[in-house]
Give the backbone structure.
Amino acid sequence: MAEKRENWGSKLGLILAMAGNAVGLGNFWRYPYQAAKNGGGAFMIPYFGALILMGIPLMFVEWNLGRYGGKYGHGSLGPMVYLQAREGVSPKMAAILGGLAGAIALGVTVLVNSYYNHIIGWTFGYAFMSVTGGYMDAAKSTGEVFVNYIQSPGLVFTFWLLALVVLGFAVSGGIQKGIELLAKFMMPTIYIFGIILIIRTLTLGSPVNPDWSPIAGLNYIWSPRWDQLSWTAALAAAGQIFFTLSLGMGIICNYASYLKPDDDIVLSGITTIALNEVAEVILGGTIAIPIAYTFLGEAGLGAGVGLSFISLPNIFRTMAGGQLMGTLWFLLLAFAGVTSAVAMYNYVVSLLEESFGFAKKKAALAVFLLYVVVGLPVALEPILTKTADLAYFTEVDNWVGSYLLVVLGLIEVIAAGWIMGGKAKDEMNRGSYWKVPDWFFKVFIQFLTPISIIGLLVMSTRDYIKAGYFKLVPSFVANSPQLIPWVQAARFVVFGVLAIGFFQAYKTIRDKYGVELESNQVSIRK
Amino acid sequence: MTSGALAFMLLAWGVILTSAVVFLSSLLKHSKQ
């Protein structure tokens, strides 16, 4: 067992790294179109509800899970969940729960980064094109520019590999000299770029139509349209909370595993959330949508995921200072993506270190190669099929990005609230400047949070079934037969990685705690 | 911008910004690390 673990170098470095872990592409890219699509102000009500019901309690649970596991030398979820679960159920049962948690965490950190790193690559590429004027030629639509980009092997591979190299170097440098240093540079830069972009956005005026302005865009986001308040909007809001806070991925736990045993977790956890919400609700909500509304009106907000890479470049072409705005926007996206992707990268590296005894640099190189392999289908699908549907990406994202996060969150909260119980609360409060009150633990962590997550899972599953995602040929590729093999391949990879993850996590638990599994009694304590 | 939307936005921004400042300053001042 790895007895000596790295630690964070400073409080500021830790909190910036944790905030960076949470602040990602979801804050600036996913949140604006989710808010716009789901009723603006009406979306914000379930959003804040989910933040209180699930986001805050789960953040405490994950920090606690990580610090507790780190005390025993673990950075991966399998043994972490085992250690908490064994306090309330038999070690054999705890090992199965740990195996499930480890499987999902490996699945998320490997598979989400299989496409997330590509999006970071696109942002690097688009930042470069903003500087060089690569999408400024009005003769070609920005939709065509984007399709050309993802179908161009040179552009895709150059910037994707560049993103992987940046991540690899950061992780190789270790916690203090790699990840912490990266966060200390990138996080303040994100906030500064965000503020510059907001100032420019709010001073755009009404260059196209007197009714279209940044203020009208803000009005669109913040006006509660009660008729659009629905289960669909509530599910989207709850899903966004998992995404934006990086919950149910294992990466908050992994960063928390580098805390010292008595380091604060309650105040640190809530500060992470507050910094993330500044980036999401204030910065993320005041850039993309108001810009799009100013130039395109309400109709321009329906672009969904294309908002960042198709609609905004089209605007940057025409607005004064558009090249500079474009550069800042795509660099902001790139930095936000990097500070989250590096956490997923580090999770897999620390798993190789603790389970297979790899040295840091060797593990970082192995994960680099792993990410190249799992990212290849995402890169190759548009190039080989000459389509822009990204079916492999969509299928992986449906299963892993928006479904498994919730299952892992449920396992974590059950392990802490129901199985470990009051001991988990005492553990959370140990060393913390602010304490989690008894009523909060009982009402939220033991009751409302797990019930809300179960409700979210049931309703999401119902929606997935209705939308035809579970069919052998899912609805979104039913009319594109050439993409069906890509979807089937995605399913094979998802379940393959989950199976490998389960056996790897179970084996790690058995290797470290075999004595307990044989006797079915807890005997190893620190 | 309607007064309802403005009030909702300012309330949300106020709570978030105040929380961030109070939590971060408390953390840097008091917590163990």
Summary: Chain A has one domain: 11-514.
